[in-house]
Fold:
Amino acid sequence: MKYPGLLDQDISRIGLQESQMYNLISGKLVTDIVRTSLGPRGMEKMYIDILGEDTITSHGGAFLRKVDVDHPAAKSVIEAVNTVDTHVGDGTTTAAVLIGSLLKEAEELLKIGIPVATITRGYEKSLDYTLEVLDEIKMKSNRRDKKIMRQLLTTCLEGKAIFDLHEENTKIVDTIIEAICDISNLESGQIDIDDIKIEEKIGNTTEIQLIKGTVIDKTIDSSAMPRTIKDAKVLLINESLETMRTRTEAGIEIESPEQMSQFLNQENKDLLVLVQKIVDSGANVVISRKGVNEFVQEALAKKGIITMRRVKYNDLWWLEKATGAKTCGNIEKISNDELGFAKKVYEKTVDEEKMVFVEGNNPKSVTLLLRANSKRYLDEFHRNAKNAFYVLRNFIENPFIVYGAGSVEGIIAQKIRKYSVTVEGKEQIAIERFANAVEQIPLTLAQNIGMDMLDTLTRFRAETAKSNGKIKWYGINSNIRKISNMSESEIIETSVVKQQVFKTAVEVANMILNIDDVFMKNLIDNTHCHIDGHVHAHRDGGKAHNHFEQEGLEQRQMHQYY
Structure:
């Protein structure tokens, strides 16, 4: 009698010790990639894709999204960094550094025989206490205070391309603050970042500007139409102003040239009816998501009406916000409620290309027009601007701040060490190692500006120990390359970012630690399908497989590899 094996022959088991080791190593390696990008003096990374196009960025989350990794633990770290980027828009590199430090400390604890369950419980208790400390030390501010906004943006953008390459970096800060204030309700703290459209064009960085409305990367349809209209009435439509083909096959029989002329005249009459409806509505700017033929353009141009065709759906959404218009449901029944109003609609040449600017009277949507000398810098400017928008959004929704430059991590590490003494058992060691991991954030900042790691660590702990129970915001001053009191500086961050970073880092580190074994099905190449939908694979490359089942040459099935 034959007994079956426990596992199939194409399933491999990694093993207990090897699984934990490989998971920890993979998690640490992917975080070490972006460690040198932390801080205002962080280095940039370059990624070259399969087509040879390069991406240069100091944004940790953006770079890790570009990197393709196979190991599940490394993928988990990248997903965690993306979570931080999605929710708070900043702190991605900090989260990666903290995850790597927690995994490194956990690896050392495992080597001295401390169980995984003890380590994870210690990390969880440390997280709970960290969040309590953050609630104690965070400072409430006025969400209307533009001085605080400037300090937040300067902290966020210092060392970024959009800040360093602009001749007047204070101007770009004021531009971003103005954009946020235009679309937000500072009384209730409501804000939607999607109300800000970001448009990109090659040019000089000094030409970056904010438009109180929407910029459309289109031209006015006809040269006979006016280039500028003030106090415009805007009509947005989602219908075609042209003859449409029927969805089903149809035909007409024409027996004479006169009938052909009658047919064309009737088509034009039907279009003129729609043109007259637009004229009667009072609209002088018509923006369509679909087509507008030349006959309609000519008819509207005679009435002094501007048209733009094939406008993107998202642009219509922004135009609704900017002008107060509603997309017309039926051109034959245009109501006054569907019309929007714009202070000025004009065409302007930007980078040798024409664009249409729609400036509203009191727009609920604005456009940030980014300019840079290359596409790679435009992409980086776009990422920097999004980061800045999210930082101000976090502040408006939750106006609590802490001092930056690693000072908040120093306070947390000091308090956690004192807290660890009150915990019994081996969890005390895990909590103390958590404090060591938190300290890696200011130490990494110091390393990236050229300070000595060991000397910085001893001085940093000595300064924080002098506080005698009082909160002293000692951090890494990158300008003078020394440890100084950050409460005397303008380097501040939102407390929401710190909370999200610590929560995400601990959750991912514990998830990776809790994996103690891996079962993996062997990958098989030469997977393919037949025309009948049958999918299978061959270990031998299909050499011994008769694909055609003795059929004739003309009857052989298609065989496609993928």
Notes: Confidence is low (pLDDT under 50) at residues 547-562. The chain has three domains: 11-140+402-513, 213-245+257-362, 525-562.
